[in-house]
Design a protein that fits this description.
- The chain has one helix at about 1-120.
- By secondary structure, the protein is mostly helical.
Length: about 120
């Protein structure tokens, strides 16, 4: 009877050892899964940082674009002002040419009058 009890205890010991090995194996699997989850968490953090960096770059690019648009508007305003000034100067030059033509005509008439006066003497 003692042998049967010892055999039963030995059998229980073997079963407990087998169960212990299975529990250890599952613990290893849980550790492996935990490592994989941690690795994915790190990848997500890396991707999040990249997205944040891209967001910052987009903000900077937007500010640069707005500055360039403003500069383009300023340049257009200056260009329009210069065009207006050129048109104004062109009008004044045409007026001066007309006045010079009138002066030349009057001068020629005066020369003619001088020649007449000299011929009367």
């Amino acid at each position: 009877m003692e042998n049967k009890i010892l055999q039963a205890l030995e059998g229980l010991k073997n079963q407990i050892g087998t169960l212990s090995d299975k529990v250890d194996n599952q613990g290893n699997q849980i550790n492996t899964l935990s490592d994989k989850v941690d690795n994915q968490g790190n990848q997500i953090n890396t991707l999040s940082q990249k997205v944040d960096n891209q967001g910052t770059q987009i903000k900077e690019n937007t500010q640069i674009l707005k500055a360039l648009e403003h500069l383009a508007q300023v340049n257009k305003a200056e260009h329009d002002k210069m065009s207006f000034n050129i048109a104004e100067i062109s009008g004044e030059v045409k007026g001066i040419r007309k006045d010079l033509s009138n002066v030349e005509i009057i001068t020629a008439s005066n020369w003619g009058d001088l020649v007449k006066l000299k011929s009367i003497k």
